Automatic annotation (TrEMBL):
It comes from Glycomyces artemisiae. InterPro entries: YdbS-like_PH. Residues 76-152 form the YdbS-like PH domain. The keyword Nucleus does not apply. The chain crosses the membrane at residues 21-46, 52-74. Keywords: Membrane, Transmembrane, Transmembrane helix. This is YdbS-like PH domain-containing protein. The keyword NADP does not apply.
Length: 165
């Protein structure tokens, strides 16, 4: 008797709504990295003022617009799900990446939080597999949800015989 086939479908869960401000702050920080030095140098070096302040202004306008629009789009397209047989993620905007990590291939389950993520009450669950594509990351989960999910994944993978290689 063969095992029933599971129909592939997009993962069901959206990330926590608090990822929107978290992603916005990340975009603004990434914008500030080139803007601040350009603006400071533009203010200090009079002959190069236009050559430095114009790009700083353009980057600032683009960065602020991106930090307002992109997180909303990301939240609409990014999905995740954990079933009894696999961890699924669907990411990407133009080039979609659908990652499926079977429970039998999971080697470690980690929960991480950076200081910025912690300030928004969010966590990341990192599922490391034997895949050369790297770990499957579920970024932007509620802290309690991430802890419960890591515990569930640990129990599910522990119940599967073998060494996940």
């Amino acid at each position: 008797m063969t095992a029933p086939r599971t129909a592939l479908r997009p993962p069901q869960h959206q990330f926590d709504p608090r990822v929107l401000p978290w992603w916005r702050v990340q975009c603004l920080i990434a914008t500030a990295v080139p803007v601040v030095p350009l603006a400071v140098l533009g203010l200090l070096i009079a002959p190069a003022r236009a050559w430095l302040l114009l790009p700083a202004a353009a980057i600032l306008v683009f960065g602020v617009a991106a930090s307002l629009a992109m997180p909303v789009w990301w939240h609409r397209v990014h999905r995740w799900e954990v079933t009894d047989t696999a961890v699924y993620t669907l990411t990407g905007y133009f080039w979609r990446t659908w990652r499926i990590a079977p429970m039998s291939r999971i080697q470690t389950v980690d929960t991480t939080q950076g200081p910025l993520q912690r300030s928004f009450g969010l966590s990341t669950v990192v599922v490391t597999t034997a895949s050369s594509a790297g770990a499957v990351k579920l970024e932007g989960l509620d802290q309690d949800q991430a802890s419960a999910l890591a515990e569930r994944l640990t129990e599910l993978t522990d119940a599967i015989p073998g060494d996940a290689t």
